[in-house]
Specification:
Layout: H1 2-11, H2 22-41, H3 46-72, H4 78-104
Helix pairs in contact: 1-2, 1-4, 2-3, 3-4
Length: 106
């Protein structure tokens, strides 16, 4: 959730003509990470939960890519990208750990 907050802060300053482009896409993909984990937790089996964790990871990788695009377009600074990427590395480890624990329960 903290990472999503950082994404919203960063995208607040994107150009207005990106409102329906990269701004929207980056916000939606970052929110999708948490939303899919939440939805998966509500499922009745570990197999279903695992599927939603994997979908979440895909959305996460999409958001990381969009952060890099934002930097290349000079919408965020190098410091912002480094901060977002550093947090992303930690989130990737957490998602991987969650996935591994669900695989063990299969």
């Amino acid at each position: 959730m903290d990472w999503i907050d950082k994404i919203y802060v960063a995208t607040k300053h994107f150009p207005s003509d990106e409102r329906f482009g990269l701004t929207s896409q980056l916000r939606r993909s970052s929110v999708s990470v948490a939303a899919n984990i939440s939805e998966g937790m509500g499922r009745t089996s570990n197999k279903d939960f695992l599927r939603f964790v994997e979908i979440s990871y895909g959305s996460f990788m999409e958001a990381v890519c969009e952060c890099m695009i934002a930097k290349r377009q000079n919408y965020i600074s190098e410091e912002q990208l480094k901060s977002l990427y550093s947090d992303a590395e930690e989130l990737a480890r957490m998602l991987s750990g969650l996935r591994s624990s669900l695989l063990k329960k299969e």
